[in-house]
Amino acid sequence: MTVTDTYQRPIISLRISITNRCNVNCFYCHHDGILPQKYEMTPDEIHRIAQVARDIGVQKIRLSGGEPLIRDDIVEIVSKISSIGFKDVSITTNGTFLDKYADSLVEAGLNRVNVSLDTLKPEIYRFITKKDYLQKAKQGIIHASESGLYPVKVNMVVMKGLNHDEIWDMFNFCQENGAVLQLIELLKTENCPDNGFIDDYHYKMDDLEEELVNRADKVKTRKFMQDRKKYFVDGGEIEVVKPMDNTQFCKNCTRIRITPEGKLKPCLLRNDNLVDFIEPMRQGKSNEELKKLFLKAIENREPYYDKCS
């Protein structure tokens, strides 16, 4: 039976950040400081977290980071989680290790993958990430699609004057390689480097969405994904992810999170209501006691933007 919060939102998804280490340094990414590898949660600890989550009705697990594939035990982690019997197990990655791991991850039980890739131009990729891994990322996407992961989604943060003119090139790349393109509009949060960052790079996608409506063969609204729109164009798919500063995002939120430090995070945009999970688990608390910590975190959930109605 699925647990709901006090606003009647079902908790069906758990995102576990298994590391905050990363092999790229995207200039728009907010880093809270690198947790030393020796303090990261072990595969058995991640497995137990997933077990307790399943006991309260969570149906989907997503692994993220940092860069989750930077962990050399990633296949073991996925295998342990998938053995529990979730409806869906997925990963968000920058794709640079996918060529190496895609087949093994599929065999371990991974269902799908989201790959962060903002550009197809080497010089722009280097500017954004401070690395020369574009070809590795592209090959990772291609291999992921060939390996049977489905869907493979490419997350493109659209930035004015930097990559906004590449949207249709990226769509063609995705279409050619069996991937879905997700266009992400920059969000201004307290974690942004400064207000000038948003002024410089924010690209409002209203005109683009109007073009998509005119070009699309079909438009689908994803109710439990913040009412975002999916456009079917020329046999391919484009999904538009609007900023989270709206009541629809909160109204349809069905996700809770685990930080790399092992704390339950009830809200993406808040850090003042975390519930420690890893220490009680390491102290030998039973699954029933740990389940109460999940329920406490769920009780702490409230809409960041206005009230759900």
TrEMBL record:
[4Fe-4S] cluster 1 binds at C22, C26, C29. GO terms for molecular function: 4 iron, 4 sulfur cluster binding; cyclic pyranopterin monophosphate synthase activity; GTP 3',8'-cyclase activity; GTP binding; metal ion binding; S-adenosyl-L-methionine binding. [4Fe-4S] cluster 2 binds at C250, C253, C267. S-adenosyl-L-methionine binds at Y28, G66, S116. It comes from the Archaea. The keyword Transmembrane does not apply. Binds 2 [4Fe-4S] clusters. Binds 1 [4Fe-4S] cluster coordinated with 3 cysteines and an exchangeable S-adenosyl-L-methionine and 1 [4Fe-4S] cluster coordinated with 3 cysteines and the GTP-derived substrate. It is an enzyme of class 4 (lyase). Transmembrane segments: none annotated. GTP binds at R15, R62, T92, K153, R255, I256, R257. SUPFAM superfamilies: Radical SAM enzymes (SSF102114). The keyword S-adenosyl-L-methionine applies. It catalyses: GTP + AH2 + S-adenosyl-L-methionine = (8S)-3',8-cyclo-7,8-dihydroguanosine 5'-triphosphate + 5'-deoxyadenosine + L-methionine + A + H(+). This is Probable GTP 3',8-cyclase. It comes from Methanobacterium formicicum (strain DSM 3637 / PP1). The gene is moaA.
